[in-house]
Amino acid sequence: MPQRRSKRVAAGSNKGGVGKTGWVEMVAAALAEMGRKVLVVDVDPQANVSRRMGRPYRKEQPFVTISEVVKSGEVGCAADAIVPVGWGGIYAEQIDIIPSRFDLENRISEAAVIGSRGRLARALEGVDDRYDFTLFDCQPSLGHLTQLALAAADYGVALVEPEYDGVEGAIRFRDFINDEINRKEMGNLDLTFAAAIPSLVDGRLAGHAHHLGTLPGILGEGQVWAPIPLRSVVKDAADEAQPLSAQGSRGTEMREVYKAAAERMIKEFV
User: Fold this and answer.
1) Is the CB of residue 269 less than 8 Å from the CB of residue 155?
2) In the chain, at which end, N or C, are there fewer CB atoms within 10 A of the end residue's CB?
């Protein structure tokens, strides 16, 4: 069997509001601008990355979502849910998404079903071979939905808001991945914790500077990537369900930041 081309990366934390969804969205855009094919998989019932990338669920116009994919768990069934992002131009050509919706919550109650953790991995089997990267936007927890993504992923990256609770959430995410028992239970012993990425960094705050300085010692030298600064233009793009490029010159600085993050991913994972 030919080796899968796509590198699967799960972005998570055991804390919400740390910039995880924004990172997935904007790094996917940066990778597309660099000519890479990307599949975004929304594994969060909040479905924020689906909305931001132009694929919100509307009951009057239903479509297959990650909820139906996980419920089935059949080999290759994820293909039925893949659609281009709702952005135009190169993004629609280079980025596809498996959207989410609120009823993904219903899959949590199925956690005790035999083989349930492997459902997403089976559903993606043979499906994402043509992509360079598959990016999972995980729920901000270590529960069943996050474990579905981790069971399918090659790498886990933690988004870290440089505040006490944000650091603790990243540590718990890292420790969960690094625990061999957890990886064995998920059927994915090769899963690797790859990086901690400081996000929503406010250079005006002394507390943020302090935590940034301590992160390498806590989360590992060489595993702390370049920080993602807090900028209103990222929120504006998210609110308007647009890529940063649609913000014109206002988006230039952050496009460069995410380009650097995408280049680091290519260097580390390809």
Assistant:
1) yes
2) N
Give the three-state DSSP class for 230: coil
In Å, how far are 6, 31, 119, 231 from 47, measured between CA atoms? 23, 21, 19, 22
The first and second tokens of residue 7, run together, are 């590198």
95 by DSSP, 3-state: which?
strand
pTM listed for this prediction:
0.95
- Please report which residue ranges of 109-251 form alpha helices under DSSP H: 119-124, 144-152, 164-178, 180-185, 206-219, 232-239
Q: Which residue has the tokens 């969060």?
A: 44
Asked if 244 and 255 touch (Cβ cutoff 8 Å), the reply is yes
Q: What is the dihedral of CA 256, 257, 260, 261, to 10 degrees?
A: -140
**Measured distance CA(241)–CA(85) in Å, rounded:** 10
Architecture category of domain 7-269 in CATH:
3-Layer(aba) Sandwich (3.40)
pLDDT band at 1 (very low <50, low <70, confident <90, very high): very low
- For the stretch 24-64, pLDDT in tens is 999 999 999 999 999 999 999 999 999 999 999 988 888 99
3-state helix, strand, coil in the chain (%, to 5): 50, 15, 35
Amino acid letter, residue 9: V
The answer to whether 100 touches 47, Cβ cutoff 8 Å, is yes
Beta carbons of 13 and 140 less than 8 angstroms apart:
yes
Q: Which of 229, 154, 160, 162 is nearest to 194 (CA)?
A: 154
Reported as a pLDDT band with limits 50, 70 and 90, residue 4 is low
What's the residue count for the chain?
270
